[in-house]
Amino acid sequence: MSETIMKIDHLQKDFSIGLMSKKKVHAVNDVSFDIKKGEIISLIGESGSGKTTIGKLILRLLRPSDGHIYYNDKDITTDYKNKRDYYKKVQGIFQDPFASFNPLFKIDRIFDMIFKNFIESDKNKKEKINDALKCVGMNPEFILRKYPHQLSGGQLQRLLIARALIMDVDVLVADELISMLDASTRIDVLNLLASICKEKGMAVLFVTHDLSLGYYISDTTLIMHRGNLVEKGKTSLIYNNPVHPYTQMLLKSIPDIGKRWDKNEKFLPEDINKKIDDFYKNSDIKKGFIEVEDDHKVLFSL
Amino acid sequence: MTEKILDVKDLKLYYKTLKGYVKAIDGINFDIKRGEILGIAGESGCGKSTLGNGLILLKKPLNYISGQANLNGKNIMNLKNKEMNTLRFKDISIIPQFAMDAFSPTKKIKTFISDIVSQHNINPDEKFFDKVRERLDMVNLNHSVLNNYSIELSGGMKQRLVMVISTLLDPELLICDEVTSALDVSSQRFVANMIGDFRDKKIIGSAIFITHDLSILYQIADRIMVMYAGHIAEIADSDTIVKNPKHPYTKALISSLPKNDVQYKDEQLSGIDGTPPNLLNIGEGCRFRFRCKYATDICAKQTPVQEEISSGHTLACWNYKKAGSDKNV
Lengths: 302, 329
Hints:
The structure holds 2 protein chains of 2 kinds.
Chain A: E1 4-17, E2 23-36, E3 40-44, H1 51-58, E4 66-71, E5 74-75, H2 83-89, E6 90-93, H3 107-118, H4 125-135, H5 140-143, H6 153-167, E7 171-175, H7 183-200, E8 203-208, H8 211-217, E9 220-225, E10 228-234, H9 235-240, H10 245-252, H11 271-282, E11 289-293, E12 296-299
Helix pairs in contact in A: 4-6, 6-7
Chain B: E1 4-17, E2 20-33, E3 37-41, H1 48-56, E4 62-71, E5 74-75, H2 81-87, E6 92-95, H3 109-119, H4 126-138, H5 155-166, E7 173-177, H6 185-200, E8 206-210, H7 214-220, E9 223-228, E10 231-237, H8 238-243, H9 248-255, H10 297-301, E11 307-310, E12 313-315, H11 320-325
Parallel strand pairs in B: 3-8, 3-9, 6-7, 7-8
Antiparallel strand pairs in B: 1-2, 1-4, 4-5, 9-10, 10-12, 11-12
């Protein structure tokens, strides 16, 4: 289980703004982490923290400014060919299931295209599709003849997972997978994803802004703030013992069912930047990204 | 506190389509007391936004069928648009969904505010803007935002500004439709708390808070109303809804929410199988019966009646007693 399949090494992505592009925004700043086989990693941060950019870099939709991504010890950032081979093993699912399907194609044609593009042999094609659909709890007879608009968001999202199953992917980047689904259906999609990971050894990078769902599903948690990875480690350690002020603030603002927010506590989102600056200034002894306990690292200074 | 500001009786609002009526709001009864925050929760398509919009403005294809919505004792459903216009913004105000994306991109915030209030016969002079600035202080916004364009502000700032604008005339009832949904968790908490603050400071009389997120409602609402497919499932104070729900749908919904001490590897939560029914020309019967494990024959024949099972706890279910004794939901 602990075999590392993907290694993200000092990844950097800058975007230039303005016409003369003198000014640069560090969307992703010196981020490193490993993805192990069968592991669910949740990547949590606010909008603009760079979490989606990391997903895109892993999916090779963007080229990094600096740093490397190793997939099975092969550097994919310098290898511009063989994209198709890479996509056989690394795939993404995005937020809007309605936008992920061609509305003119029936579902069976969508599966046909996977075989045409990514799997050489058509052997056992029907069997494979049926198995994958059954695995996500859908009836192949019923579903394959439908158009995307005839299905609900939860069903479409499960179809996307089925697609990844047929291809037998190693790493799945799930970008805000469940944020468009209703409370009553999203937990089933999450359960499905987690059970597949455990069975098939698929690793999932679960990009989300929902901390409570991140806690529910993931083994490892990464917290991003303004392009920096500020805290990473085992999920239970981060949620029970947050060290970085940003993580602490995030955890305080989760609406927790069964426990009310403290009304007397002054809560201003604007204060957080100052708090983080103070935190970086005052940690003289500790510098950089340091381990505070086993499997729990915190950024003490930039 | 006991005075009712809004009293809705057997209200029916249908969308008229070429194929027939979509029964988005079908015979609901509820009330809001003065100084109360009522939360409305439910899945997408359950009619919660239709209800909010319908109370403010009946726009085609939404049609008023029958029933009453009494605001301060006056049925606002029968009012002409002109009469309603005198009530809007002063007596009843709304923050619609995605309101923060509706700022004019070519106007400064100050011009934008002036334009709105002059529609309501208020002179946007300096005295008026002193009041605006006072409100901006309350929500921790800098006065300089008045001279900004909307693209220069962040989502959380825009949402706070929207709240300031909609409450400028101190409405007695404010309807907030998904005001926290597009925000980050940190701004979410601030905006949600603001509504409670405004109520405590008597800027708004009472509020309806519409969202799909029950955990936010639990934080700020006094009472929670759970809707399912155009019907009301259950109304009770927020502690009862969260800790002791009786309706099978509420029970299933609460148990599907992630809790702070449950991880997948230890314990698995379960969702609700199936999807809500299509409301087009839907007939009699409980609309949750297709997904309900307690459903019996009567559920298919008769629409459950809203009944008060204890003081302040209303629900509509034929078999809630059977469901109520089942602990393993």
